[in-house]
Design a protein that fits this description.
Elements (H helix, E strand, L loop, with lengths): L2 H7 L21 H9 L7 E7 L1 E2 L11 E2 L3 H22 L4 E9 L7 H14 L1 E12 L6 H9 L4 E7 L3 H6 L6 H13 L4 E8 L6 H12 L5 E6 L21 H17 L3 E3 L3 E3 L4 H8 L3 E3 L2 E3 L5 E5 L4 E4 L2 E5 L3 H9 L5 E6 L2 H16 L1 E3 H7 L8 H6 L1 H5 L3 E4 L2 E4 L7 H5 L18
Helix pairs in contact: 3-4, 3-11, 4-5, 8-9
Length: 449
C-alpha cells in the first residue's frame, strides 16, 4: 500500500453500524414517540432484542463501551430489577407477545450478572415474548471472570453463541491496556462452553494497541485459531480520548502509527485466510460452513450495532442503559447513565434519551452504505429504483467516487461500484461519500484503518 493513500484516505469516519449514525441522534424524539412506534409495529415482524449490562470488574484502558467498574453485587442486582421492569414495560407498549428471533447480550460484561439474575431475566423475556426455538441467543463474555456455574446457567437459559474478548495474548500489550488475561483463561472458558453445548464460539481480537507489532499480532492469531473458534473479529482500536478519557492512560507514543496499523491488519487478515477463514466484510472472519460465511455468499449479510450479523429481524429493541434500538420509524437510544435510566423506569416511563426519525432519504442511503459495508459492491441505480427513486439519484456521489477509482480502490461500471481488494480497508471512507450528515472537519470519529 502506497503511504500517500494511507495519508489520503485514513480519515476519521463513522463505523457505520447505523445510518444516520449515533452522533446525529437528538432529544426531539421522545418517550411518547417510542410508545407510538412500538404500538404500530407490524404484528408479523420478528424482533431482535439487545440487552446492555454496563458493569465490569476492571476497566480496560482501550475500552469504548458504556460501562462502569463495580466490585459489589448490590448495584448489579438492583440493575437486574429495573431491567426486568423495562422488559415488561416494552412488552406492554407493544401490546402483544411479539415473536423474537435473536437475542444479544452486550456490555460491559454480561457475565458480571449472577447466574440466578441471568435466569431471572430470561424468565421475564420468555414470559412476555415469544422467543423462537430457533432463535440465536448470543452473549459477550469476559473469560477472566467467567465461572463454570455461570456457563451452566447460560446453557440452561438457551444461550447458543458466546463472544469472548481476547484482544491480544502478548503479556506486554496486556499490561499496556490494563487487561491481563493469560491464554489458559481463554482456553478454559472455551472448554466450559463446549462442554455445556454452547457451540457457537466467537473470539474478539484487536490491532492498533500500544506495544503491538505485526509479529505479536500474528502470534495471537495462531494461538487463538488453535481453539477452533467459528468466528473471529479483528477490530481496529478506536482511540477517542475526547469521548473516553481513560484512554489517555495509554500514552499516544506507544500506539502504532497509520502504516503499522495497516500492516498489522493486513498480516492478520492474510494469516486467517491461510488458516481457512473466510473474510466477512471489513473485520470479521468465519469458517466456510458458518452461517455468517453462507450469508456473505448469498448476499444476505447485515450490519447493526453489534457489527456484522446474520440477524435479519426488521426491528431491534434495545433494553438497558444506553442501549440503541431500530424500528421502521427511526432509532431510539436509552438514557446513558444508570441512575437516569433507573429514575425513568421508576417513574413508569420508557427511558428514552434521544433518537432520530428516518426520512425516506435516510433509509435509501442507509441501504447503500450497508450493502457496501457487507458486499463491497453495489448497483446504485438498482437500489435507488427499489426505493422508488430515479436511477440517477446518486450520480453526484458517483462523480465524487472517481477519486477512489483513480487510486485503484474501486472499479466503476456505470452506476455499478465494486470495491477492489486494495480498497477494502478504506470502505468506511468510501461509504462516507453517501453520508449527507457528515461534514468534513467536524466529525470526531475513529480513524478508518
Amino acid at each position: 500500500m502506497r503511504m500517500e493513500l494511507l495519508d489520503k484516505y485514513d480519515g476519521r469516519v463513522p463505523r457505520y453500524t447505523s445510518y444516520p449514525t449515533a452522533p446525529h441522534f437528538h432529544d426531539g424524539v421522545t418517550e411518547g414517540d417510542y410508545r407510538g412506534w412500538l404500538a404500530a409495529l407490524d404484528p408479523g415482524a420478528d424482533l431482535s432484542l439487545y440487552l446492555h449490562v454496563p458493569f465490569c470488574k476492571q476497566l480496560c484502558w482501550y475500552c469504548g463501551c458504556n460501562t462502569k467498574v463495580v466490585n459489589r453485587p448490590d448495584p448489579v442486582a438492583d440493575y437486574v430489577t429495573f431491567l426486568a421492569r423495562e422488559i415488561h414495560m416494552v412488552a406492554d407498549a407493544i401490546g402483544r407477545r411479539a415473536r423474537v428471533s435473536h437475542i444479544h447480550w452486550g456490555g460491559g460484561t454480561p457475565n458480571a450478572l449472577a447466574p440466578d439474575d441471568l435466569m431471572r431475566l430470561f424468565a421475564a423475556l420468555r414470559d412476555r415474548y415469544d422467543v423462537s426455538e430457533e432463535a440465536e441467543i448470543a452473549v459477550e463474555i469476559d473469560p477472566r471472570v467467567l465461572t463454570e456455574e455461570w456457563v451452566t446457567a447460560a446453557a440452561a437459559c438457551g444461550v447458543t453463541r458466546a463472544s469472548l474478548g481476547v484482544q491480544d495474548l502478548d503479556s506486554g500489550v496486556q499490561e499496556a491496556i490494563h487487561r491481563v488475561q493469560p491464554y489458559e483463561q481463554t482456553e478454559r472458558a472455551v472448554a466450559w462452553l463446549r462442554a455445556a453445548e454452547i457451540d457457537g464460539i466467537n473470539l474478539d481480537l484487536m490491532y492498533g494497541l500500544p506495544r503491538q507489532t505485526v509479529d505479536s499480532v500474528l502470534r495471537t492469531v495462531d494461538r487463538v485459531v488453535a481453539l477452533r473458534p467459528d468466528r473471529i473479529a479483528l477490530f481496529g482500536y478506536a482511540h477517542v480520548p475526547w469521548m473516553k478519557p481513560h484512554q489517555k492512560l495509554m500514552p499516544e507514543k506507544d500506539l502504532p502509527g497509520t502504516r503499522e496499523r495497516y500492516e498489522q491488519q493486513e498480516a492478520a487478515s492474510s494469516r486467517l485466510a491461510e488458516l481457512g477463514y473466510v473474510q466477512i466484510g471489513l473485520d470479521h472472519f468465519a469458517r466456510p460452513e458458518d452461517p455468517m460465511a453462507v450469508a456473505v455468499a448469498s448476499g444476505s449479510m447485515r450490519r447493526n450495532f453489534q457489527g456484522y450479523t446474520t440477524d435479519d429481524a426488521p426491528v431491534l429493541v434495545g433494553l438497558g442503559s444506553s442501549s440503541i434500538g431500530r424500528l421502521p420509524q427511526g432509532y431510539i437510544q436509552n438514557r446513558s447513565t444508570v441512575p437516569d435510566w433507573r429514575a425513568a423506569i421508576g417513574a413508569g416511563e420508557l427511558p428514552v434519551a434521544r433518537g432520530i426519525r428516518l426520512e425516506p432519504d435516510d433509509v435509501l442511503r442507509g441501504a447503500v452504505i450497508e450493502r457496501l459495508m457487507c458486499d463491497f459492491a453495489i448497483d446504485l441505480a438498482a437500489v435507488a429504483m427499489a426505493h422508488g427513486c430515479s436511477p440517477t439519484t446518486f450520480d453526484d456521489e458517483a462523480a465524487m467516487l472517481k477519486r477512489f477509482e483513480e487510486d485503484g480502490l474501486i472499479h466503476m461500471d456505470g452506476r455499478r461500484i465494486h470495491v477492489t481488494e486494495a480498497g477494502r480497508p478504506f470502505v468506511r471512507s468510501i461509504c462516507a461519500t453517501f453520508d449527507r450528515y457528515l461534514r468534513a472537519g467536524e466529525a470526531r470519529h475513529a480513524r478508518a484503518i
